[in-house]
Automatic annotation (TrEMBL):
Keyword RNA-binding: no
InterPro entries: 3-OHbutyrate_DH, NAD(P)-bd_dom_sf, Sc_DH/Rdtase_CS, SDR, SDR_fam
Family designation: Belongs to the short-chain dehydrogenases/reductases (SDR) family.
Domain of life from the UniProt record: Bacteria
Protein name: 3-hydroxybutyrate dehydrogenase
Gene Ontology molecular function: 3-hydroxybutyrate dehydrogenase activity
Length: 256
């Protein structure tokens, strides 16, 4: 379905981003990965699907790095057809104890980076009259949790940003939507599981159950593969009139 298209997925060397990148690659999209940590492993996984794969190590908190990454996409891949804004970080603390530098970093990476990638990638999409922008928000883009003020603010902002750009592109061949996962067992969430296990003196499996039981009625983690399948649908012709939506995949979290 996406053969000949190029997808840039930020924060895609692991977790949700890698799951989405692999799903798009299975549909024939060439992939530009971005992120820290192991790069060779994810590149090999994507390349094994028979598509062209690139990597750019842009620091998503730095607008100049983001501009360089988009320029790389233009030079090496002929532009960006599918933009997946997934890069994100987390810090948990009460607002009065929240480190200012952590607040600034979360807003920069979880929210402002999507503005910079979108403003730079969108003109090329509009010229082709085809594009898909998917913002990986969160259930926390729709509802709040205590001690996550920066993350909740950024993800609410990302949902609002999604709606605004969807309206600006409503009569074009570019669609803009947000995906809002609940608990996904990424390295970020595993840290919270480990902290809960230590606090409550329970094993990892019980800590996972307790974490899910607090918010996610299905008692099942959403998987990167499931989120990848949703991303593929939102890139399809069947979703051409899905615009400005914040699509939850949260095991019932926001059903109450």
């Amino acid at each position: 379905m996406l053969k000949g298209k190029t997808a840039l997925v930020t924060g895609s060397t692991s977790g949700i981003g890698l799951g989405v990148a692999l799903a798009l690659a299975r549909e024939g999209a060439n992939i530009i990965l971005n992120g820290f940590g192991d790069v060779d492993g994810p590149k090999a996984e994507v390349a094994a699907l028979g598509v062209k794969v690139g990597y750019h190590g842009a620091d998503m908190s730095k607008p100049a790095d983001i501009a360089a990454m988009v320029a790389y996409a233009d030079a090496e891949f002929g532009g960006i057809d599918v933009l997946v804004n997934n890069a994100g970080i987390q810090h948990v603390a009460a607002v009065q104890d929240f480190p200012v530098e952590k607040w600034d970093a979360i807003i920069a990476i979880n929210l402002s980076s999507a503005f910079h990638t979108t403003r730079l990638a969108l003109p090329g999409m509009l010229k082709k009259n085809w594009g898909r922008i998917l913002n990986i928000a969160s259930v926390h883009g729709l509802v709040a949790s205590a001690q996550k003020s920066a993350y909740v603010a950024a993800k609410h902002g990302l949902v609002g940003f999604t709606k605004s750009i969807a309206l600006e592109t409503a009569t074009t061949g570019v669609t803009v939507n947000a995906i809002c996962p609940g608990w996904v067992l990424t390295p970020l969430v595993q840290k919270q599981v480990d902290a809960l296990a230590a606090k409550d003196g329970v094993d990892n499996d019980e800590a996972k159950r307790r974490l899910l039981a607090e918010k996610q009625p299905s008692l099942q983690f959403t998987t990167p593969d499931e989120l990848g399948a949703l991303a593929v649908f939102l890139c399809s012709d069947a979703a051409v009139n899905v615009r400005g939506q914040a699509w939850s995949m949260d095991g019932g979290w926001t059903a109450v």
